[in-house]
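Quick one: NUDIX hydrolase from Candidatus Desulfovibrio intestinavium, structure tokens please.
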Amino acid sequence: MKKTVTCPLCHQDYEIYANPAPTVDVIIHDPQRGVVIIERGHEPLGFALPGGFIDDGEQAEAAARREMREETGLDVELTGLLGVYSAPWRDPRRHTMSTVFVGRTAHPEALRAGDDAARAAWHPLDALPAPLCFDHGIILEHFREVLAGRRALAPVQPDAPTRPHSGTTGGTTA
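--- reply ---
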């Protein structure tokens, strides 16, 4: 959405775009342990899937792995893409658009809370803590559909290669 604002210093009008902020969430599932849920240490308080904002210049897959390391101490392999969730109400702080990944970890015992997670724990899907923040209840219901064979995961894209510095601009040669 484009809107016009006035600079309070120079009083000139200019246009800004109020776009959704890109985020990631990650469902780490272990058949014996359940899913990783964090207890948020900052507003909005409650329980949530690990995740967070994608940094400028960062690929979504890299952000998902980074957020997992920061909030749970787990190194993860992303195994599928559950979907993109963009309801304007999903985050009370601002409009976000979350890419939700599914993954696994080779070391589930390494789980620990970090960064803005006050706690991190494994929870069976049929005994999740409440309240779940954002739209994470809906997301986890969609994940249950994956486990039941009623919904499919999309493949995760490989990390993008580093852009070559070939001395060309705009796809043309010098």
